[in-house]
Write a structure and sequence with these properties.
Blueprint lengths: L1 H18 L2 E4 L2 E5 L4 E12 L2 E12 L5 E15 L5 E12 L4 E12 L4 E11 L5 E4 L7 E4 L9
Antiparallel strand pairs: 1-3, 2-3, 3-4, 4-5, 5-6, 6-7, 7-8, 8-9, 8-10
Length: 159
């Protein structure tokens, strides 16, 4: 089982070396090559290019070619994301799903997303961010609205 897990991790690592390195550190790893599932638990830290994500648990699903098709992060998720148009976002949620083929992040439960370079903030229960076009969509919880905060410059503030 350990050899299979190491092999799966090496395959996953070699795939990401072709584009941008994906570095994952965690307290433990369990992989199943046939099912295309790799599970990292305990103080998980992921880094790819400028993007960073931290969580309690990360599950990576791969296709038959061992390409990642979905990454699910659970538990005290924090993140830093840079879009194709150089917008930068940071925030936290209880769950995050990343779809690498469409470059989309989906954040769930108690989401706080800050656009750093525009000084905007979105709070909601579900926020979807597409890193190709920088579009964001948010939904509130049943009894909680979506909250959007814009920083407005006054006349004395420089650009």
């Amino acid at each position: 089982m350990k050899i299979k897990s190491i092999f799966t991790l090496l395959l996953l690592s070699s795939i990401t070396l072709l584009s941008n390195d994906l570095k994952i550190t965690a307290n433990s790893f369990d992989g199943d090559e046939k099912k295309g599932i790799s599970i990292f638990t305990g103080d998980v830290k992921m880094k790819k290019g400028f993007d960073e994500l931290n969580a309690t648990k990360v599950t990576i699903f791969t296709d038959k070619k061992h390409d990642p098709i979905k990454m699910v992060a659970d538990g005290d998720v924090s993140f830093f994301v840079k879009t194709e148009n150089n917008s930068t976002y940071a925030g936290k949620a209880q769950k995050a799903v990343y779809m690498p083929k469409i470059k989309e992040y989906q954040f769930y439960t108690n989401v706080h997303l800050r656009q750093l370079n525009e000084r905007k903030q979105i709070d909601g229960d579900k926020v979807i961010l597409n890193t190709l076009d920088g579009k964001a969509v948010a939904n509130g919880a049943k009894k909680e609205p979506v909250i959007m905060i814009f920083h407005l410059k006054d006349q004395n503030e420089s650009k």
